[in-house]
Amino acid sequence: MKTSEKLIILAGAAKYDASCSSSGSNRNSDGDGTGNAAESGICHSWSADGRCISLLKILMSNDCLFDCRYCLSRRSNSQERATFTSEEIASLTINFYLRNYIEGLFLSSAVYASPDKTMADMIEVCRLLRHKHAFNGYIHLKIIPGAAADLVQQAGFLADRLSVNIEFPSEASLKRLAPQKSKMSILAPMKQIGDNFTGFQLERKKSRNSPVFCPGGQSTQMIIGASGESDFQILNLTESLYNKMSLKRVYYSAYIAVNEGLYLPALTTAPPLLREHRLYQADWLLRFYKFQAHEILSPAFPNLDDRLDPKAAWALRNFDLFPIDINRASYEELLRIPGVGILSARRIIKTRRVAAIREQDLKKIGLVLKRAKYFITINGKYPARSSLSHHQLVDAMCRAESPAARKLLQNSRQLRLF
Ligand code: SF4
User: Is the whole model's pTM more than 0.90, yes or no?
Assistant: First the structure.
């Protein structure tokens, strides 16, 4: 099979990984204008400093020994299979890089021989790139569950970011839907990466000569909507992954039905995109807004409200804590106000060092007044003018939702109708 044919199969198979997005466009140039988009697995990701970077996102192989029920590449599916050699991927990456198509590589794989052999071949790709081609670009490498600890260690010295997919929010779902994977085969490498990441960072502070281990940290991916866990379970797990495993990101992947079978949602099930969106918003609250999972949800409220973003839902449930005066609130209190982001909270603190903030200053500061006005006072004045009942407030906050969320909500309701 030609490398270009393998590329089409293995870039297509990689699109189910949520860690990068935007693969799959195929728009050829008609001779006018600049550039064209091809189904060659080029996708975009974001670097630690916020830059958007293009990555070659492919699988090493889709010829899997495992039979995870939800996966297109599972052993029991009949489909075209392909496996790259390490040299082929290294050569593709460097050639795409030299042509300015990409700035890095995102490499995952099905388990085609054994976890160790697959992992060793993926590491060989990194070794060829780093040592033979002197490639200093970004490499994100998936760790194969069950791969030996010394291979995980080698991967960490070659890649910028590592990720081990946790797949499901509970061990019971993992057993049911991915019977060849075990909780330990996922958590052990995660813990190893977390410990090494922290350990080598400390070493680097003592000596600039100590080696760099996985400088971009580690991430993971959880499939949403294929199993029965609540958002409360998902957020609790997420919080403990951030706290105990030093994870940089948890990605949520709305389940896409590609197989039929026992324990799986029907093939006609639409991916729960709105739920995925709400989980990303809640995740943002955990990482940047100093919220804890038990504040966002609880056994009494186990699922995120699909009509409202999680911060607005929290504020409406805790309305007795409001209104907060913009000129007196601490930074932490400001962060809890719907419509106030990290940047606007910082600007409020900075501005009021010079003079008290007035209502006309709020727009310039970046505060979203149509959301915040029900929760704040400005020098004792309530900018919403009149107070609303709980129902009216919920309605007003739903109307103030972002256009993206409103569109997802509309789509999910339409899909439910049919
Ligand atoms: S290990 Fe499971 S999820 Fe990964 S490619 Fe194989 S069947 Fe798919």
Answer: no
**C-alpha span between 342 and 365 (Å, rounded):** 11
CATH number of the domain bearing residue 230:
3.30.750
Let me know: does 243 contact 198? Beta carbons within 8 Å. no
Query: What's the full length of the chain, in residues?
Result: 418
15 lines ligand 1 (CB under 6 A): no
How far apart, in Å, are the Cα atoms of 63 and each of 88, 113, 155, 241, 378? 17, 9, 22, 30, 62
Report the nearest-CA residue for atom 4 of ligand 1.
110
CA angle centred on 105, ends 191 and 249, rounded to 5°:
40
pLDDT in tens, 162-173: 999 999 999 999
Specify whether 79 is located in the same domain as 133.
Answer: yes
pLDDT above 50 (res 200)? yes
- 65, HSE (Cβ side, Cα atoms, 13 Å): 13
Contacts of 57 (CB under 8 A, 6+ apart): 11, 14, 15, 17, 20, 23, 41, 42, 43, 106
Are 148 and 174 in a shared domain? no
With a 6 Å cutoff on the Cβ, whether 110 touches ligand 1 is: yes
Report how far ligand 1's centroid is from the alpha carbon of 11 (Å).
Answer: 15
Tell me: pLDDT of 201 over 90: no
- Residue of 17, 59, 74 to test ligand 1 pocket, by largest number of atoms within 8 Å of CB: 74
Instruction: Answer left, alpha or beta for residue 134, where phi above 0 means left and psi between -120 and 50 means alpha.
Output: left
Q: Are both 346 and 221 inside the same structural domain? A: no
Residue with tokens 């489909």: 79
Asked if 134 and 189 sit in the same domain, the reply is no
Paired residues of 163 in beta bridges: 142, 219
Residue 316's contacts (CB-CB under 8 Å, 6 or more residues apart) are 308, 390, 393, 394, 397
Provide the residue range defining the domain that includes 387: 310-400
> Does 335 reside within a domain?
yes
Residue type, 255: Y
Residues ≥6 apart with Cβ < 8 Å to 79: 62, 72, 73
